[in-house]
Design brief:
It is built from ten helices and six strands; from the N terminus they run βαααααβαβαβαβαβα. The chain has 219 residues and is α/β, with parallel strands linked by helices. It starts with 6 loop residues before the first strand and ends in a 6-residue tail after the last helix. The chain has two domains: 139 residues, HAD superfamily/HAD-like (Rossmann fold, 3-Layer(aba) Sandwich), CATH 3.40.50; 65 residues, DNA polymerase, domain 1 (Orthogonal Bundle). Helix 1 packs across helix 4, helix 4 packs parallel to helix 6 and helix 7 crosses helix 8. The longest helix is centred in the middle third of the chain and has 19 residues.
Length: 219
């Protein structure tokens, strides 16, 4: 018997599923050193998660002209740091399993590149949970890419889960509920527009159940 799809839950990656700083901070610092720059402080790097790579380059090194070399350096070092230091937030596997078992499609929509998303999800053994991995490849903003995911989704409920203002805005501009992750890298002001707030990943299935029983009206 074919299972009935309930809809789609769209996740940001860094600060939402992936405890990013553990593997990405050393990879970025090593890449900067390779290019002759002093490595940025962890706090400066952590504040940029969710931004496209050109923003990282401008903020950390003063120019977007270094982006390609920076990207390649990060890829090289992350191939080492992710398997050793990479981690998910506690409760993420259980949460993804529960939502998948409830009949939801799961997708990642990140402002990072697709290669990075594949590297993270494969290194952390969660790639099998996701039907789609959407990264920034110059083919639209997060709002536009979320819209495309909604268009092809099956089932009545679509939800965006993330920790930064891009995620909350993408949900609002597409008229779907947003869940803000307080444990991630966004501050309270960024999360102020979220329809729901969670303190850890294990809170999410309860929010989804609430939305099943009491859909909210969005404008």
């Amino acid at each position: 018997m074919k299972s009935i799809k309930k809809g789609i839950v769209i996740f940001d990656l860094d600060g939402t599923l992936h405890h990013t700083e553990k593997a990405l901070v050393p990879a970025i610092q090593k890449s900067m050193e390779d290019m002759g720059f002093a490595p940025a402080e962890p706090e400066a790097i952590n504040a940029l998660y969710g931004e496209p790579l050109d923003v990282f380059c401008r903020k950390l090194m003063g120019s977007a002209e270094y982006c390609e070399r920076f990207r390649e350096g990060i890829r090289k070092h992350q191939a080492v740091t992710l398997p050793v230091s990479g981690s998910l937030y506690p409760g993420t596997i259980q949460m993804l399993t529960e939502l998948k078992n409830k009949g939801y499609d799961l997708a990642v929509c990140s402002n990072a590149g697709v290669d990075y998303i594949h590297l993270v999800t494969e290194s952390l053994n969660v790639s099998e949970f996701f039907s789609t991995l959407s990264g920034w490849e110059g083919d639209g903003s997060k709002t536009e890419r979320v819209s495309r995911l909604i268009e092809v989704s099956q089932g009545p409920l679509c939800v965006m889960v993330g920790d930064r203002y891009h995620d909350i805005a993408a949900a609002a501009e597409n008229g779907i509920p947003s869940v803000g992750c307080r444990y991630g890298y966004g501050d309270e002001q960024e999360l102020a527009g979220a329809d729901f707030i969670i303190e850890n990943p294990s809170d999410l299935p309860m929010i989804i159940s609430e939305l099943e029983d009491n859909p909210i009206s969005l404008h």
